[in-house]
Amino acid sequence: MAEFVEADNAEAIIARIETKSRKIESLLKQYKHVEALKTALEGSPPKTRDERCKSANWIVVHRALMAIKDIDGMLNALDVEYYDILMKYLYRGLSTGDRPTCDQCLKIHEKLTERAGLGCILRCLTDTINTV
Description:
The protein has one domain (about 5-125): Serine Threonine Protein Phosphatase 5, Tetratricopeptide repeat. It is built from 7 helices and no strands. The chain has helices at about 10-30, 35-40, 50-65, 70-75, 85-95, 100-115, 120-125. The longest helix has 20 residues, at about 10-30. One of its GO terms (molecular function) is actin binding.
């Protein structure tokens, strides 16, 4: 079972997410969109139940997701170990109801499902411990 940190450590997690956010912004300015997404997905989801941490991390992942233009190229460059966590964030994006976010998440979802198969969806939906 995953070990979760207590809420009093949430500030430390948020500080790490802020550092990650600055790195991602730098990568995006250099047009390294896939590298930014990989960086955003690293260490995700945060090992906490604190919603502030999860929301802060979602904002970082969302920023990287929205910058992706070449979905096939992104999936070719992305290691398969990232597929399940990416799928979780796609569902989080779909749950926002924001039209541009949903459109992007659906495009990526379609290509990711073709690549990773239905097992990726099932693992994402049945993992109730490591939520994003």
